[in-house]
Amino acid sequence: MSKPITGSCCCGQISYTAKSVAPLWYCHCQQCRKMTGHYMAAARVNLNDIEINGEAKWFYVSDDSRHGFCPDCGSKIFWRNDKNDFLSITGGSINDTSSLRVSGHVFVGEKGDYYEIPGDEKRYICWESSIQQS
Ligand SMILES: [Zn+2]
Ligand SMILES: [Zn+2]
């Protein structure tokens, strides 16, 4: 468990305070690459542990999975699946990243051909395999 963190979009219209944040995941699936412009760096926060100020715009990328962004500046801030009791906040939206840790990379088989996966954190083919192995 990390210490409370704060974050926001570029323009500051959307901001949040999270009591506790899980280690960061990098997701290389095509959906995340389209959403973010490269690949996703995001950390889970229980819905009970986050206070959000401002109204994010939500876009459903599938039946129950959506990402939240600032309607003005377009910063990608949130991702969530309606079936889960957590949402994910993007690494880039976090103000002070000094307490963040990294879990690993998921959907590595869907990564873009134009880059290599950096670092020596764990790599997983999908979420299911990451749950079994970690
Ligand atoms: Zn904004
Ligand atoms: Zn993804």
Description:
With 134 residues, the protein is mainly beta. The chain has one domain (5-133): Beta Complex (Metal Binding Protein, Guanine Nucleotide Exchange Factor, Chain A), CATH 2.170.150. 10% of the residues lie in helices and 37% in strands. It contains two helices and eleven strands, in the order βββαββββββββα. The strands form two sheets. It has an eight-stranded mixed beta sheet with strand order 6-7-8-9-4-3-10-11. It has a three-stranded antiparallel beta sheet with strand order 1-2-5, with no helix packed on it. Strand 1 and strand 2 (15-18) form a beta hairpin. The structure holds zinc ion (2 copies). One zinc ion is lined by residues 27, 29, 31-32, 40, 107. One zinc ion binds at residues 9-11, 13-14, 70, 72-73, 75.
- Termini separation comes to 16 Å
| Quaternary organisation of the protein chains | single chain
Write down the CATH class: Mainly Beta
Q: Examine the coordinates and then state which fold CATH places here, giving the name of the CATH topology.
A: Metal Binding Protein, Guanine Nucleotide Exchange Factor, Chain A
Strand content bin? 35-45%
| Associated small molecules | zinc ion
Query: Helicity range of the residues?
Result: 10-25%
**In the CATH hierarchy, what is the architecture at level 2?**
Beta Complex
Total count of strands: 11
Low-confidence stretches: none
Q: What class would the helix/strand composition place it in?
A: mainly beta
Outline = globular
Radius of gyration in whole Å, from Cα?
14 Å
Instruction: Specify the biggest β-sheet.
Output: 8 strands, mixed
